[in-house]
Sequence to fold (134 residues):
Amino acid sequence: MPDLFSFGILMVVRLVSGDYSNMIGGGPPPLDSIPWWVYINYDISHSFVSAFLCITIVQRYNKDIAFAMWAWPFHILLDFPFHSKAYFPTKLLWPITDFSFDGIPWSRPEIWFPNLAGIIILFIYRKYNKQKKG
Fold:
């Protein structure tokens, strides 16, 4: 959800407007090509303050949905070590503070390949377990 709120909306806007620049290959787009509102959406959606506030509000009305929403702060927890201050730093407690951690970017091979391998292993494991049960 956090990435869809910022980059997902940007992708839809660019697809609808016919702007396909910086969408395929070539690495991350230059920061100056990204609209200002994406930065605000990113800060909102990658803040524990926003996540806990939203979960608390939803909890009052639907506990099952609120429980599923705990994936949001979990995403932030897994994401913040892998963003450098140079490219979309994760401001964990925004708007209280702009503090961010200078992490190792996802784009680095020593991060990207183990992450991809972990996802592939998880899918294989789930498929194997599903076949074993069924």
